[in-house]
């Protein structure tokens, strides 16, 4: 899992970006003290830095210079300032890219993936097979769910059910919708078979301490809850 340091003082935007990037299995770190950014950078050793220009204490250009004096880690500027000299300055200081606010999240993801692929020879296709949910890593390709302490292997049906529920997390997914989805995927599942698969899935997730995040809504279906963001 790649570690991204997001140097952004807008707490609302920080939480939004953190939540969205975590859905792509990136671990996002913030800054606790904007007067000591370089110390936190050195301690956390991120794989990529996203930095705003307008920051408390010192601006993003200052911290870009400081980071570049210590490391060649890729840096992406994220700023609401639209003057061409800002982009030129960021490139001259060694930044890898510049994104102007407001931005579309798909653009941010694409640029992050492009930078990581270029710097670390990173395979984005592999990343698409990974998902983070409630602190666990879901490997769709290998049918494995992993936490920091343990892992379990799911059947193809169990993984497919979990994938559908996670994609619609916090929404009730009806039994009919699950059965139709499995049928369309050429995996025939009857009503009774669905119950058996969901029960086995929940039991395996319980072994990881995640069983409570899959709930049965009597007469409605199932729901995958999302762990509260801290």
Automatic annotation (TrEMBL):
Residues with the 4-aspartylphosphate modification: 52
Gene3D superfamilies, A to Z: 3.40.50.2300, Winged helix-like DNA-binding domain superfamily/Winged helix DNA-binding domain
Domain OmpR/PhoB-type: start-end pairs: 128-226
Subcellular location: Cytoplasm
Domain Response regulatory residues, every copy: 3-116
Keywords of the record: Cytoplasm, DNA-binding, Phosphoprotein, Transcription, Transcription regulation, Two-component regulatory system
Coarse class of the protein's main subcellular location: cytoplasm
InterPro entries: CheY-like_superfamily, OmpR/PhoB-type_DNA-bd, Sig_transdc_resp-reg_C-effctor, Sig_transdc_resp-reg_receiver, WalR-like, WH-like_DNA-bd_sf
Entry-linked Pfam families: Response_reg, Trans_reg_C
DNA-binding residue intervals: 128-226
Name of this chain's protein: Response regulator transcription factor
Organism: Ornithinibacillus salinisoli
Phylogenetic lineage: Bacteria, Bacillati, Bacillota, Bacilli, Bacillales
